[in-house]
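Assemble and predict.
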Amino acid sequence: MLDSKTTLYGVIGNPIAHSLSPKLHNWMIKFFGLNAVYVAFCVKTEELRSCIEGVKALEIGGLNVTIPHKEKVLGYVDEKSETVVRMGACNTLQNKNGRVCAHVTDPFGFTESLGERKDCFAGAHVILLGAGGAARSVAFALSQLGVKKLYTTDILFDRALNLSHLAVKELKLQECEVIEYGDPAINDAILDSTIVINASPAGMHPNTDCPVADMSAFSERHFVYDLVYNPEKTQFLSHAQSKGASVQNGLDMLILQGLASLRIWEEKEFQLDRPALQEVRNVLNNELKNP
Amino acid sequence: MLDSKTTLYGVIGNPIAHSLSPKLHNWMIKFFGLNAVYVAFCVKTEELRSCIEGVKALEIGGLNVTIPHKEKVLGYVDEKSETVVRMGACNTLQNKNGRVCAHVTDPFGFTESLGERKDCFAGAHVILLGAGGAARSVAFALSQLGVKKLYTTDILFDRALNLSHLAVKELKLQECEVIEYGDPAINDAILDSTIVINASPAGMHPNTDCPVADMSAFSERHFVYDLVYNPEKTQFLSHAQSKGASVQNGLDMLILQGLASLRIWEEKEFQLDRPALQEVRNVLNNELKNP
């Protein structure tokens, strides 16, 4: 297509040269037959104001926002969704007739990626590894899924503590417990839980770290979710699976938060059925293997 | 292609929804195997400063500039080529590591579009119909081609006078004469000239006006060039051809000014051979017929 009526979308971040979002969104744009194109913009933090002014001046349709801009960009937007206000972070900017509105689709992406497993979360005890921005999005989703008890842990103890406070005060999770990073007490928490989620960058290519040193407490009782999708199966997921656990990586979360962004920009309720989802997974996994 | 390393180019103007530049440039991008994409941006005059700041913040590779921004955008750029300084207008912005440099490729586009006919211009008497921005670009090319005498005319007499002054003082054309719009003296000028160029919008779709009311003085002695390319053959070119004149429309000028912009952005000496030029002409003519 690509003519003078083509709408421009994109993602801002720094660095951005390894983002999968252009592949994902251009695949969806083609799949849904839209006259649009999606590119990656490397934006420095001190250029965020100019970036948002440029979005308005150039009438760019919308942007995704990734690390390190998810919080700071909120200083330059005109409107924020309720969830963005509560989370203090966004991943989607919508340019609505020259007003830039911030949305966040990461919690939705996490929840929808669970498929039928969603039902196992109500009343569950869950361990969340890592307490950065991604973990905060997951915590929001967990509170909506009706999780009963949340264990948090992080290399930075204060960050785990903060997430725990947020979960209790803001998200109304019934019980929260902070575990110090590397504390063997994590094994008791694993035995007490049925769901373990890695929202830390441990295990992300090219690193092969495992966010849990001792995997002995894992069993077929567990569902283990790793937000990392590169490699397709991390050491963490491999080890958990070898102990009988069900496992899932973060690729569907990436796809479904992107789908939700596109819905906001185009104001249409696009759906990806099972074969379409498998096709786009293949496209992205191929991209990861042959960058 | 389209991945996180894709370079973004575009055109700014207002209105922009009928620009052929996205079709042209995306064709060239594919033809030359570049990882880039080109879109049209509708930019309001009061947003030009934000637009240029946005180009830097978003690291956009380069922009074409069209009506009404070719002069005003110069207030916001960091550097200007020598020809831009002399013309007071640009059509190409290059983002060179955060510095925006203004270039103009229209005179080159005109000259190169002449092909072997270039040689007929040295020492020739030429009539230039219209005295706006496009005519100014043509006048620059004419001075470099060694034209001896230039007749200028425009609906706005002062504009024709100004162009005439520019041609004598700045462009060092030997002789210039201004003809009042609609003055029958145009026939004597046509008889005295071998080349007649329409750089006014007369005859542009959907209008079917002819920039010269009385075509009786045209003959096989004349080469008639119409910068208008929509329709492919204007009434002006049809009438001139029926009197035996050789004719050419402005499509090759559009293509070749675009090629020159791409050379500046990518810093490569791209060439379009004859079959490639014919292919892109067909693409653009099809677009004009089926918008």
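Chain B has ten helices and twelve strands.
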